[in-house]
Design goal:
With 384 residues, the chain is an alpha/beta fold. It has helices at 2-20, 50-61, 75-85, 92-102, 107-114, 144-160, 163-169, 171-186, 190-198, 242-280, 285-289, 295-315, 320-326, 329-344, 347-360, 372-381; strands at residues 38-40, 45-47, 206-210, 219-224, 230-236. The chain has a five-stranded mixed sheet, covered by helices on one side.
């Protein structure tokens, strides 16, 4: 009799487990094809992405800060979006997103989810169970089943809101945004320089997604596709300054670098950043002590560092035409160095020397990874 009870219990656990767990397969939905402009060049693939547009609109309706700002000069487009979607402010999906916001999930996390949805909204690119390895950690506050439900609701909202008609209405605007960004960014050879400077074979194709709706911030994302390769995305507004873009672009590389090396440098780095902040804000000492400093802080520092490297590269081959269009990179370099020195004090000159040593010895250091011992030694020396 005892054995029978145990078996019954196991069966019940198995039954309830199957009811509450999301299936370990991709979510499949009816395709909704929306044709928006894109262009592939030797540098990047540039695109207006319907997944990003609809998720950005939903986050704007749910009043996420990242999507609630107005980019100067683009108010007409955003006013049109706000007018057309006014009636959906109390939509069930918008209320759901607001409830998730209260759980501490940011708008940028939902943008990451967008890149895990098929371009034609026909489901997820990979199963949500187990969680995709490139899923934003904030989204793990939701169960795989909740994530699948959310993707389904987004799919249904695309149809309900007649989103494809709105995209058709704005084709001319999208084409203009794409054309301007392609012309401006391609001539800078950002990706060509990055491939040489970082020499990371994992970062190959990068998609630059242009959106007027997520205008207050710039985003970089990874999403691993069905067959395993990691896809890289940079999401920008059409008014993004190229210097901001270069910093964000470098994060595709440096975030990976920082994550791999974080354990080797985190104690000294956190201590240095906290001590430095206490000097800047002596009245906030207790608050600073309680702050968490993540590896993204290290990546952000290195992104400013690589912006200096990019300026060094551009100084060597700038022309009167590029100076007129982008400014004098020698002056930009000096300005960034001043910011660097103001932020990091006496350590800034050591950091720039480290950078110059890497650039001058590329035969010895084939990529940034091969230079990691020197970088880690520098980070561990901060504040000494």
């Amino acid at each position: 009799m005892k054995k029978m009870k145990i078996c019954a219990s196991v069966c019940l656990i198995s039954l309830f487990g199957s009811l509450f767990a999301a299936p370990k397969k991709v979510l499949e939905l009816e395709p909704v094809v929306i044709d928006l402009p894109s262009k592939t060049t030797a540098e990047f693939t540039y695109a207006i992405d319907p997944r990003v547009e609809i998720v950005s609109i939903l986050c704007r309706l749910a009043e996420f800060q990242e999507f609630s700002l107005n980019y100067q000069g683009e108010n007409e487009f955003l006013s049109q979006i706000d007018t057309l979607f006014e009636k959906y402010k109390n939509h069930k999906l918008v209320k759901t997103l607001k409830s998730y916001k209260k759980q501490g999930i940011s708008g940028s996390a939902f943008l990451n989810l967008a890149y895990h949805i098929n371009p034609d909204f026909s489901g997820t690119t990979v199963p949500m169970n187990p969680y995709p390895k490139d899923l934003n950690p904030e989204l793990k506050k939701l169960s795989p089943k909740q994530l699948n439900k959310l993707v389904t609701q987004i799919h249904d909202f695309v149809i309900e809101s007649k989103f494809s008609r709105i995209c058709t209405l704005n084709q001319a605007t999208y084409q203009a945004d794409l054309g301007w960004i392609v012309e401006d960014y391609d001539k800078l050879n950002i990706h060509s320089w990055g491939k040489n400077f970082f020499n990371n074979p994992n970062v190959k194709d990068v998609t630059v997604t242009i959106s007027r709706i997520c205008c207050g911030y710039y985003f970089y994302d990874y999403a691993t596709g069905k067959n395993g390769p990691r896809n890289y995305y940079l999401t920008i507004s059409p008014g993004t300054n190229y210097l901001n873009f270069i910093q964000m672009y470098s994060l595709l590389y440096t975030q990976d670098y920082a994550s791999r090396n974080w354990d080797k440098v985190k104690d000294n780095y956190i201590s240095y950043i906290k001590d430095f902040n206490k000097k800047l804000y002596p009245d906030r000492e207790k608050e600073i002590d309680n702050q968490e400093v993540y590896d993204s802080s290290l990546a952000s520092t290195i992104s400013l560092y690589t912006l200096i490297a990019f300026c060094q590269y551009k100084i060597q081959n700038q022309t009167e035409e590029t100076i007129k269009k982008y400014g004098d990179f020698a002056q930009i370099y000096d300005s960034i160095v001043q910011i660097f020195e103001k932020s990091y004090g006496k350590e800034a000159s050591k950091a720039i020397e480290l950078l110059e040593n890497y650039s001058a010895n590329r035969q010895k250091y084939v990529n940034l990874l091969s230079y990691e011992n020197e970088i880690n030694a520098f980070v561990n020396s901060l504040g000494n």
